[in-house]
Amino acid sequence: MRDLLIRGLEGDAHAYRAFLDQLSGHLRSFLMRRLSGIPDEVEDIVQESLLAIHDKRHTYDRSQPMGAWVFAIARYKLVDFFRRREIKDSLCDQVDDERDFFLSTNMDAAEAHRDIMKLLKLLPDRQRIPIVCTKLDGLSVEETVRLTGMTESAIKVGVHRGLKALAKAIRGNHEND
């Protein structure tokens, strides 16, 4: 898919169309896993993601794997959806103690997510990208290979070494407490 994107950026309209067609299937799969309870919303977010990717295609750094760039945009669109939905729901729902309980749980999850992202920034791309794709985004190794252009063994080694490095970093941080 990376090759199709690059050819599309160089003016090959057929390659760019093929890139968008293939990407839409990956995005749909990515979003279906996250929105299994509300599948009617998936197609709208796929389209929003494709539009954002199209609008931001000039920002793609050809020296970097494509998958992380594409799925970062898709994640932002998913977060935007959840924010819109939360605002809409808050206008309709009565605020009560139960909601406050879940809000604090969401804040804890957000803090944990920020901590994980800080730790991941310590890793080189060859470790961080496979971990993000396979462990956080829930993609298979095969999907990650197609999206990033990395080999299957590079993905597996990157995940293994990256998780080992993260564990070491976490142990090091706790020793300093």
Structure characterization notes:
It is a single chain. With 177 residues, this protein is mostly helical. The chain has two domains: 1-93, Rna Polymerase Sigma Factor, Chain: A, CATH 1.10.1740.10; 111-177, Winged helix-like DNA-binding domain superfamily/Winged helix DNA-binding domain (Arc Repressor Mutant, subunit A), CATH 1.10.10. Helices cover 79% and strands 0% of the residues. The chain is built from eight helices and no strands. The protein has helices at residues 2-9, 13-34, 42-55, 66-92, 97-121, 125-136, 141-148, 152-175. Helix 1 (2-9) packs across helix 2 (13-34), helix 2 crosses helix 3 and helix 6 (125-136) packs across helix 8. The longest helix is centred in the middle third of the chain and has 27 residues, at 66-92. The chain is globular, with a radius of gyration of 18 Å. Mean pLDDT is 79; it is low at 94-105.
Brief overview, please?
This protein is mainly α and 177 residues long.
List the keywords.
single chain; 177 residues; mainly alpha; Rna Polymerase Sigma Factor, Chain: A; Arc Repressor Mutant, subunit A; 2 domains
